[in-house]
Amino acid sequence: MATALVHYTAAAASDRGLRRASNEDAFGISVEHGVFLVCDGMGGAAAGEIASALAVDEMLRMLTSRAEAAPMVQAAQEAILIANEAIFSLSQRDQNLRGMGTTLVGLLVEERHVLALNVGDSRCYLMRNGKLLQVTEDHSFVDEQVRLGHMTREQALRSNFRSVITRALGTQSQVQPDMFQLEAEPGDLFLLCSDGLTRELTDSAIESLLGVDLPLEGLCASLVSAANQAGGHDNITCVLARAEL
């Protein structure tokens, strides 16, 4: 019996939050090519904005021009390599941009085949049948301590080292992403977000907000609004992609 094909709809929202002077997050969407991206930049002056925007531009350029026969994992690895090199090379040429980098979380889809990828602590979630599942694992000091059993989740939430990430795009000449392959089901809702959302809202709060019957644009707006109401300490970006028959 043939499996019914799915297509995707998407929406996004990005806000500088209540405490930051600028927005160093960036996002990119190409529904036509099945590419969805969120990046959270870091670095002095405007370097974070430059790093995140460059990462999105390079990833979109590579992934929307790839050959249809190219496997998703191979295409993603090549795109990340190019984006990392672009950011790192620019930082080496410009003293004012030294040390800049960005997190990256992305979703590549080909009908039901889904590839989630990440570098840093921006996350991908899957909402399926009313339940929220974190797909990616944070590359952060506290999350690695939790995975090693050296710290509880509650201690991690209170730690002064919550903002320390252990991998970023563009800070070194090489970077190793994590990749996760899934099979989408009709009705699946994927959330890509920067830590400005997850620092303010628990997974249960995000699950509740995504469970409301609203268009994707409305869901994005409600997530951003809730994060700002909870403190808005950082830039907030979310991209939603839904699999539909």
Describe the structure.
With 245 residues, this protein is α+β, with helices and mostly antiparallel strands. The protein has one domain: PPM-type phosphatase domain (Phosphatase 2c, domain 1, 4-Layer Sandwich). The chain contains seven helices and eleven strands. Strands 2, 3, 4, 5, 6 and 9 form a six-stranded antiparallel beta sheet that branches. A five-stranded antiparallel beta sheet has the order 1-11-10-7-8. The longest helix is centred in the middle third of the chain and has 22 residues, at 72-93. It starts with 6 loop residues before the first strand and ends with a strand. The model has no long low-confidence stretch (mean pLDDT 95).
Give the SSE map:
Layout (H helix, E strand, L loop, with lengths): L6 E9 L9 E6 L4 E8 L4 H18 L7 H22 L7 E2 L1 E7 L2 E7 L3 E6 L2 E4 L6 H7 L5 H6 L19 E6 L5 E5 L1 H4 L4 H8 L5 H14 L6 E9 L1
Antiparallel strand pairs: 1-11, 2-3, 3-4, 3-5, 5-6, 6-9, 7-8, 7-10, 10-11
**What is the level-2 CATH architecture name?**
4-Layer Sandwich
Task: State Rg.
Answer: 17 Å
The CATH class turns out to be Alpha Beta
| CATH level-four homologous superfamily name | PPM-type phosphatase domain
Outline, from the CA principal axes? globular
